[in-house]
C-alpha cells in the first residue's frame, strides 16, 4: 500500500507548532507518517511532536531549511518504498483547507498515471531561464490544466515521488537557506522527471491575491542583510551549476549590484550592501554552508521561513 510521508522542519516555533500539527492531522488525507526535524533542539518541541504521534529528529544544530529537509528526506528514504510519496510542510504555514493535502496528492497521482516520469507536484511553481539564470513567472494564459514547471515553491505543499528521490537524491543541505527547492527541481528536470502544478487552482489563487494579469513575479528582495547574503550566494551557485560558469558570474555580479543598491534602504543600509557583495564573492569561490547567522534586527536568532523561493509570488 502506498504511504504518504510528511516532513516538517521547525526552528524556535514551539508556540505555533501545536496548531500547525493539529491542522495537518485534521486533513481529510493526513500523512500516514509525519517526520519533524527540530533545528532548535528544544525539549518542548519534542514533547509536542510526540504528543501528535509524529517522528521527532533532533538536528543537533541549526541546519537551516535546506539541511533540515535533507535530514528529514534521508530519514524517510531509509524507510520508504519507491511508490510512496513525500510531502513537505511548513511549521508556520499549515494547509489552507482540510482538503489541501488530498487535492495535491490526487493531482500528483493523476500526473503519474499520465506520465510515469512525474516526479513532483504542488500548488505553485515557476520556471527557470537557463540563459540568464533567472526565475520566470508562468503567464496567466498558461494556467489551465497540467502546467509544467521547473520547481515547486516552498510552502506550496510540494509532494515528491519517492522513486524520483531515490534517483535524484535529497535537497542540498549545503545551501543552508534559500532556493534549495529550486536547485532540487532543476536536478529533477535534468534527470528527466516532470514537475507539475494544476493550472486552474493556481490562477484562482493569483486572482484572490490580486496578482492576476502581472507579467513579472515579485522578487520580494530581502532587505534583511543575512537574507540578502543567502539570496545572492545561492542564486549564483545554482546558476553556475545548472547553467554555466559565465551565467553564474552574471548572477553573482547582479547580486552584488543589488546589494550596493540596498545601501539606501532603511532596513538594509551598508550592512545589506556588504551582505550582497559577500554572497556574490562566496558564490564565485564556491563557499557553501551556514556562513552568515540568521538574525533579526534586534540580533535574536530568527526562524527562517522556507523561503528561498517564497520570492516567487503566484
Report the total helices. 10
Structure summary, number of beta strands: 11
Q: Tell the overall outline.
A: globular
Radius of gyration from the alpha-carbon trace, in angstroms: 19 Å
> Strand fraction band?
15-25%
How far do the termini sit from each other?
34 Å
Number of domains: 2
Helical content stands at 40-55%
CATH architecture of the largest domain: Alpha-Beta Complex
Per CATH, the class of the largest domain reads Alpha Beta
The low-pLDDT segments are 297-312
Structural class designation = alpha/beta
CATH fold-level name of the largest domain: Spore Coat Polysaccharide Biosynthesis Protein SpsA, Chain A
Question: What does this entry look like structurally?
Answer:
The chain has 314 residues and is an alpha/beta fold. It folds into 2 domains: 4-208, Alpha-Beta Complex (Spore Coat Polysaccharide Biosynthesis Protein SpsA, Chain A), CATH 3.90.550.60; 225-295, no CATH class. Helices cover 40% and strands 16% of the residues. The chain contains 10 helices and 11 strands. The chain has helices at residues 17-25, 43-51, 64-77, 100-114, 162-168, 180-190, 199-208, 225-242, 245-261, 269-284; strands at residues 4-10, 33-38, 55-58, 85-90, 118-122, 125-129, 134-136, 146-149, 151-152, 159-161, 194-198. The strands form 2 sheets. An 8-stranded mixed beta sheet has the order 3-2-1-4-10-5-11-8, with helices on both faces. It has a 3-stranded antiparallel beta sheet with strand order 7-6-9. Helix 1 links the parallel strand 1 and strand 2. Helix 8 (225-242) packs antiparallel against helix 9 (245-261), helix 8 (225-242) packs parallel to helix 10 (269-284) and helix 9 runs antiparallel to helix 10 (269-284). The two termini are 34 Å apart.
Amino acid at each position: 500500500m502506498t504511504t504518504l510521508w510528511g516532513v516538517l522542519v521547525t526552528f524556535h516555533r514551539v508556540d505555533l507548532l501545536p496548531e500547525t500539527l493539529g491542522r495537518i492531522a485534521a486533513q481529510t488525507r493526513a500523512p500516514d507518517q509525519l517526520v519533524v526535524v527540530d533545528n532548535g533542539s528544544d525539549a518542548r518541541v519534542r514533547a509536542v511532536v510526540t504528543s501528535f504521534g509524529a517522528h521527532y529528529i533532533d538536528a543537533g544544530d541549526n541546519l537551516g531549511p535546506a539541511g533540515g529537509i535533507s535530514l528529514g528526506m534521508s530519514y524517510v528514504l531509509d524507510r520508504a518504498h519507491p511508490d510512496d510519496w513525500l510531502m513537505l510542510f511548513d511549521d508556520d504555514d499549515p494547509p489552507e483547507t482540510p482538503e489541501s493535502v488530498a487535492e495535491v496528492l490526487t493531482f500528483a497521482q493523476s500526473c503519474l498515471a499520465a506520465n510515469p516520469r512525474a516526479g513532483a507536484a504542488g500548488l505553485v511553481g515557476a520556471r527557470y531561464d537557463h540563459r540568464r539564470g533567472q526565475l520566470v513567472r508562468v503567464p496567466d494564459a498558461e494556467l489551465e490544466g497540467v502546467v509544467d514547471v521547473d520547481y515547486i515553491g516552498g510552502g506550496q505543499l510540494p509532494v515528491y515521488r519517492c522513486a524520483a528521490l531515490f534517483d535524484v537524491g535529497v535537497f542540498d543541505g549545503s545551501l543552508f537557506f534559500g532556493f534549495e527547492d529550486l536547485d532540487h527541481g532543476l536536478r529533477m528536470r535534468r534527470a528527466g522527471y516532470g514537475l507539475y502544478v494544476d493550472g486552474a487552482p493556481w490562477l484562482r489563487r493569483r486572482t484572490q491575491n490580486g496578482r492576476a494579469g502581472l507579467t513579472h513575479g515579485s522578487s520580494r528582495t530581502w532587505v534583511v542583510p543575512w537574507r540578502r547574503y543567502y539570496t545572492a550566494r545561492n542564486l549564483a551557485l545554482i546558476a553556475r551549476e545548472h547553467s554555466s560558469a559565465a551565467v553564474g558570474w552574471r548572477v553573482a555580479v547582479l547580486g552584488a549590484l543589488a546589494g550596493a543598491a540596498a545601501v539606501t534602504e532603511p532596513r538594509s543600509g551598508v550592512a545589506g550592501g556588504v551582505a550582497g557583495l559577500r554572497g556574490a564573492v562566496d558564490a564565485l569561490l564556491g563557499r557553501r554552508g551556514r556562513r552568515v547567522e540568521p538574525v533579526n534586527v534586534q540580533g535574536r536568532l530568527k526562524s527562517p521561513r522556507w523561503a528561498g523561493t517564497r520570492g516567487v509570488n503566484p
